[in-house]
Every structure is written in structure tokens, then in C-alpha cells.
Write a structure and sequence with these properties.
The protein folds into two domains: 245 residues, TIM Barrel (Alpha-Beta Barrel); 76 residues. It is α/β, with parallel strands linked by helices and 339 residues long. Helix content is 43%, strand content 12%. The longest helix is centred in the C-terminal third of the chain and has 19 residues. Helix 11 packs antiparallel against helix 12.
Length: 339
């Protein structure tokens, strides 16, 4: 599969752009375990052109991360065009337009999935962004605004016609947010549409190697994007690739192995963000590494309140000692997103 001249190989796996999740330290972990292409946290176009510190910082990418994409969102065409020019200077391999974020404060002002209520503006914004850069432009979107307006087939054709290099589709409407099951049938219909020639990437509910194989086999997508299932589980890319190649499941990671990975992730977070921010932004991941362990509440509370790197390492050592002989089969998975 190719996006422009970027060759991702066969059956590529994408790390979804996620706010407060896909920072440099987490991207390092996902790359380590085989993510074929990653994205920075998504960036507000208005913030970027105002030179807002947090937005500009998200442009920081490293050569070892390549290929890597930068995703932009906004509700004004001029701002998106200017932000595209700024992002181009950072030299990502791909620039992605976010037409999929369902968060109320974004969608209700016409950005993210809110743009699905104004398809002509969506298409015109995309056309102008494509023309503003020499980097391949892709789009991520949803099936439609709600159940009565699942217009992704029309949208896909029109976006292709204005020059995007690939399309990622999340298998829910904006109204669904992340509730219910993702509907991959419409994603498959877009892929099988004879009018479509660009790669189609499917997204939604891929949290196991078996689901990934089914998505490739049953719906014919060119690639799969994984989001929430990567929380505390950056090795999911390795699990899926191993299963696709061998038909066998990878041996589960032991608690000592997870502790070592958590320590390594901590070191990368401190290296890229400093002690305070590095610790605060790592908390989401640290607890997810050990989600499902019984009698974990006390240690979990300490993990999410400590601001001392040495204390966090000590807590991780305590987890290893307490659960060293704990079988992965004994982990309690309260939901499909237990990781």
C-alpha cells in the first residue's frame, strides 16, 4: 500500500492520532512494536497559526518515527490552509485532515466530524489544503453525522476527486460517539466501490489480532488504524502482525515484562517532556499497562498521584514483586478496552 510515494508495505497498521496520547514517548513505544505509520496528536489549526506553544510543540517529529503524519483540524478554510503551510515546514510524510473527531466542543463549531453537516465546505476545504502543500494529504472521517445521514460513499468519491491520497473511515456516525459496535460493512462498500482508486483504511473496535484479520479478509481494506486499544498495549501491533503471518497468537506479556516496558516508557516520557509534564502525561498509560489486575486499587492510586520518578520506579518494582507469578489468563477484563 502506498500513500503518494510513501510505501507502507502489505496490510499496514496505523497508530491513530489521539490527543494527550500519541506524544513522542508513546509513539516510540508503538514504533518499537511495529506500527507502520504513526500520527502526532491532532493539532488545532487556529492554535498553530497563532503560534500557540502547545500546538507548535506537537509538530516535533523525529527521523526514527518515519513515516509519520500530522493531523490538523479546524472549521475555517483559510486557517486550515495556513496551518497546512506551517505543518509542511515540519516535513511530515503525510498531512491528515480530521473530519472525524466527535467531541462536542469541536464538532459543534463545525470542525472534526461537524464538517459532515456541510459536505460542500468539507470538499472545498480539502481541495484547498491539497493545493497548499506538496505533501500527500489524507482524510479521516466517519460514516456520517447520524443514522439518517450515512453519506460516506458520496463523501469518499468527492474527497478523492479533489486529490486526497488515502481515506480513513471510522465505522460509526458522529451521533454514536464511541458507543455501540463499529459498522465495517459501509467501510467495505467504500473499498469495493469501482469509483475508488485510493487506499481505504478502516478504523473502529480493532482490539485483537482476530478482529484485524477479519477486517482485512472480509472488508478488503488496505490498512487498519488502531486507537483506543493501544492504551497501555503498544505491543498490539506486534500481536496482530504475528497472527497475520503465522495464524498463531503471540505469547502474552508477563507482569515483569510489562514492568520493564513501563519503566522504559517512563524514561522516554521524562526525556521528551521533562519531569512534571512527562509524569502527568504518562499516567494514562501507566495504569493501563496493569489494568485488570486484582487488588490493584492502592498501587494504582499511588501511580496516578506520585510526581517523583524514583517513587514511580519503586511502585513499578512493587507491582513486579506482587504479581511476578501472576498468569495473564487470570487478568480480569471488564470490557473490550481493558488495556
Amino acid at each position: 500500500m502506498k500513500i503518494g510515494s510513501v510505501d507502507l508495505g502489505n496490510l499496514p497498521l496505523f497508530l491513530a492520532p489521539m490527543e494527550d496520547v500519541t506524544d513522542p514517548s508513546f509513539r516510540f513505544m508503538c514504533k518499537k512494536f511495529g506500527a507502520d505509520i504513526m500520527y502526532t496528536e491532532f493539532i488545532n489549526a487556529d492554535g498553530l497559526i497563532r503560534d500557540a506553544r502547545t500546538s507548535v510543540a506537537k509538530l516535533n517529529i523525529f527521523d526514527y518515527e518515519r513515516p509519520i503524519g500530522i493531523q490538523l483540524y479546524g472549521h475555517e478554510i483559510d486557517s486550515m490552509v495556513e496551518a497546512t503551510r506551517v505543518a509542511t515546514i515540519a516535513k511530515p510524510d503525510v498531512i491528515d485532515i480530521n473530519f472525524g473527531c466527535p467531541v462536542k466542543k469541536i464538532a459543534n463549531r463545525g470542525a472534526g466530524s461537524g464538517m459532515m453537516r456541510d459536505v460542500p465546505k468539507m470538499v472545498e476545504m480539502t481541495r484547498q489544503v491539497v493545493n497548499a502543500t506538496n505533501i500527500p494529504v489524507t482524510v479521516k472521517t466517519r460514516l456520517g453525522w447520524d443514522e439518517s445521514s450515512k453519506n460516506i460513499i458520496e463523501i469518499a468519491e468527492r474527497l478523492q476527486d479533489v486529490g486526497i491520497a488515502a481515506l480513513t473511515i471510522h465505522g460509526r456516525t458522529r451521533a454514536q460517539l464511541y458507543k455501540g459496535e463499529a459498522d465495517w460493512t459501509l467501510i467495505g462498500e467504500v473499498k469495493s466501490n469501482p469509483r475508488m482508486t485510493i487506499p481505504i483504511i478502516g478504523n473502529g473496535d480493532i482490539d485483537s489480532p482476530e478482529k484485524a484479520k477479519l477486517a482485512f479478509d472480509a472488508f478488503g481494506v488496505d490498512g487498519i488504524m488502531i486507537g483506543r486499544a493501544t492504551y497501555g498495549r503498544p505491543w498490539i501491533f506486534k500481536e496482530i502482525k504475528h497472527y497475520l503471518e503465522t495464524g498463531e497468537k503471540l505469547k502474552p506479556f508477563s507482569i515483569p515484562e510489562k514492568v520493564e516496558l513501563a519503566k522504559f516508557h517512563l524514561s522516554k516520557s521524562l526525556e521528551t517532556k521533562g519531569d512534571k509534564t512527562g509524569i502527568l502525561e504518562l499516567r494514562r498509560h501507566l495504569t493501563c499497562y496493569f489494568k485488570g489486575l486484582p487488588h490493584f486499587k492502592e498501587l494504582r492510586l499511588k501511580l496516578v498521584t506520585s510526581m517523583d520518578p524514583l517513587e514511580i520506579i519503586s511502585l513499578l518494582d512493587q507491582i513486579e514483586e506482587k504479581y511476578a507469578d501472576f498468569s495473564p489468563d487470570e487478568i480480569i477484563n471488564p470490557s473490550p478496552w481493558a488495556y
